[in-house]
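This entry is listed as follows:

___
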Amino acid sequence: MNPNINRLAKIGQKDSRFILGLMSGTSLDGLDLAYCKVHGSGLQTKVELIHFDTAPYPESFKSAIRQVFAKQEINFPYFTLLHRLVAQVHARIILDFLERHHITPDQVDLIASHGQTVMHVPENNQYFQETTRATLQIGDGDQIAVATGIITLSDFRQKHVATGGEGAPLAVYGDYLLNPIQDKPVIFLNIGGIANFTYLPPDGKFQHVFVSDTGPGNTLIDGWMSKYLNQPFDKDGQTAAKGTINQTFLQALLEHPFFKRTTPKSTGPEDFNLAYVEEILRKQPNPHSISNEDILATLTALTVSSIVDAIKQIIGDSEAYIYLSGGGAHNLLIRKSLQNAIVHGHLDLSEKIRIPGDAKEAIIFALLANETIAGDPATFAENPLIPGITMGKISFPS
């Protein structure tokens, strides 16, 4: 037997595995690294977060990714090299993380690398009649495995597409394993560049679980702040709080075709970007009279309104526990607006149930890797809307 296969089998048979989960979102803030101890698998999974860091990306690296990010036309040799570069940068960040926390590579059983999304095509497209949806993440897992000496799982989203999904959202699988079953429905709401939620029923049965993207999270707010105010994001929603929502502008933004699609659904910056905002703004009466503060107030209202509408489609006016994570959890205006709009929802940060919000997505990819190596796809069976699968391509260091 190939010694790598033998080593992988032994890892799968262990009671606990040490897994380093990686997440790099569409906001391009940096690489999240969550070093976890994962015990068991399936509904018996217990996870302990040992170390968590976010390694900010230098502006030059962000700029390199933006050259291809959600672009219709790209330089293909450049793109091919970028696939390798992203992995090399991530590998260096991993090695720095391990050194800083005094962890040797042999103390990490697996790396779970999400990679960097550069294109998401969730709907029927104009290019190939027989291909209806696809998604693409770069950052080659083989490069990471060889550079670190650690077995690496990557490219998680492709199995989801292969079995009929859209490649997103994947958080539902980890959310289900993390679910603190309570007397009312639980909703895990993540507001990253794009916002999504997982609905978990009180009975804990996967067949009743529901997941969907809701629309833009921080991506439009961050984009406007960066381009027009030279700031990476709206800290605490302070700039938007100084403005007034322009209802005509908001209603025009809500005419986006995504909001007319039935749930579950997924989206990305290919749909929601500054070009979309600027085009609609130009069509408004006296667009130059709308201040940056008013625009940000309106974009924030778009995020909140689309989240509220999506959640209410599922729970109506029923009570539910809502646990918030992602960058949007730090936006006080978003949090206040959500609480005011979802009257029957008990809104808390995910820290309330001991899940660090900033680390949650990286933790979830660690859990996905754990399920691939030690779990059973039947854990996620019997839900017609969510493929019952395990995910991730496996790269050996030798």
